[in-house]
Amino acid sequence: MNSNDVKNKHQEYWKKNLQYLGILLGIWFVVSYGFGILIVDELDRFRFGGFKLGFWFAQQGAIYVFVVLIFVYVFLMNRLDKKYDFDEKEIK
What we know:
By secondary structure, the chain is mostly helical. Helix content is about 75%, strand content about 5%. A two-stranded antiparallel sheet has the order 1-2. Helix 1 runs antiparallel to helix 3 (about 55-85). The longest helix has about 35 residues, at about 5-40.
Protein backbone atom coordinates (compact mmCIF):
# COMPACT_ATOMS: atom_id res chain seq x y z
CA MET A 1 0.00 0.00 0.00
CA ASN A 2 1.55 3.31 -1.04
CA SER A 3 1.34 6.61 0.83
CA ASN A 4 -1.56 7.91 -1.29
CA ASP A 5 -3.63 4.84 -0.46
CA VAL A 6 -2.88 5.27 3.25
CA LYS A 7 -3.75 8.96 3.06
CA ASN A 8 -7.05 8.20 1.27
CA LYS A 9 -7.84 5.53 3.85
CA HIS A 10 -7.26 8.00 6.69
CA GLN A 11 -9.41 10.63 4.97
CA GLU A 12 -12.26 8.18 4.47
CA TYR A 13 -11.98 7.09 8.10
CA TRP A 14 -12.03 10.68 9.34
CA LYS A 15 -14.94 11.61 7.04
CA LYS A 16 -17.00 8.69 8.38
CA ASN A 17 -16.06 9.62 11.95
CA LEU A 18 -17.28 13.19 11.39
CA GLN A 19 -20.46 11.83 9.84
CA TYR A 20 -21.13 9.75 12.95
CA LEU A 21 -20.41 12.73 15.20
CA GLY A 22 -22.74 14.99 13.22
CA ILE A 23 -25.61 12.52 13.36
CA LEU A 24 -25.19 11.72 17.05
CA LEU A 25 -24.78 15.36 18.07
CA GLY A 26 -27.83 16.21 15.96
CA ILE A 27 -29.87 13.62 17.84
CA TRP A 28 -28.62 14.98 21.15
CA PHE A 29 -29.45 18.55 20.09
CA VAL A 30 -32.98 17.58 19.09
CA VAL A 31 -33.55 15.69 22.34
CA SER A 32 -31.98 18.22 24.73
CA TYR A 33 -32.93 21.51 23.08
CA GLY A 34 -35.94 20.51 21.02
CA PHE A 35 -37.69 18.16 23.43
CA GLY A 36 -36.54 19.96 26.58
CA ILE A 37 -37.21 23.56 25.49
CA LEU A 38 -38.82 24.12 22.09
CA ILE A 39 -41.70 21.61 22.13
CA VAL A 40 -41.91 21.08 25.87
CA ASP A 41 -45.52 22.30 26.04
CA GLU A 42 -46.68 19.78 23.43
CA LEU A 43 -44.79 16.95 25.16
CA ASP A 44 -46.15 17.89 28.57
CA ARG A 45 -49.54 16.55 27.45
CA PHE A 46 -48.05 13.08 27.89
CA ARG A 47 -46.73 11.46 31.06
CA PHE A 48 -43.66 9.28 31.52
CA GLY A 49 -42.84 7.74 34.89
CA GLY A 50 -45.39 10.01 36.57
CA PHE A 51 -43.83 13.21 35.15
CA LYS A 52 -44.81 15.39 32.23
CA LEU A 53 -42.81 14.17 29.24
CA GLY A 54 -41.36 17.59 28.37
CA PHE A 55 -40.25 18.10 31.96
CA TRP A 56 -38.77 14.60 32.02
CA PHE A 57 -36.73 15.27 28.87
CA ALA A 58 -35.47 18.57 30.26
CA GLN A 59 -34.47 17.12 33.62
CA GLN A 60 -33.41 13.52 32.94
CA GLY A 61 -34.19 12.34 29.43
CA ALA A 62 -31.51 14.39 27.70
CA ILE A 63 -28.86 12.99 30.05
CA TYR A 64 -30.01 9.39 29.50
CA VAL A 65 -30.02 9.91 25.75
CA PHE A 66 -26.53 11.41 25.93
CA VAL A 67 -25.20 8.36 27.81
CA VAL A 68 -26.83 6.02 25.28
CA LEU A 69 -25.29 8.05 22.44
CA ILE A 70 -21.84 7.59 24.00
CA PHE A 71 -22.27 3.81 23.90
CA VAL A 72 -23.57 4.00 20.33
CA TYR A 73 -20.53 6.09 19.35
CA VAL A 74 -18.15 3.58 20.94
CA PHE A 75 -19.88 0.73 19.10
CA LEU A 76 -19.75 2.58 15.77
CA MET A 77 -16.11 3.59 16.19
CA ASN A 78 -15.02 0.06 17.12
CA ARG A 79 -16.74 -1.22 14.01
CA LEU A 80 -15.14 1.55 11.92
CA ASP A 81 -11.71 0.78 13.40
CA LYS A 82 -12.05 -2.84 12.32
CA LYS A 83 -13.26 -1.88 8.88
CA TYR A 84 -10.22 0.35 8.26
CA ASP A 85 -7.76 -1.90 10.14
CA PHE A 86 -7.19 0.64 12.93
CA ASP A 87 -8.15 -1.86 15.58
CA GLU A 88 -6.30 -1.08 18.84
CA LYS A 89 -5.73 -4.76 19.63
CA GLU A 90 -3.63 -5.17 16.51
CA ILE A 91 -1.41 -2.14 17.18
CA LYS A 92 1.41 -3.26 19.47
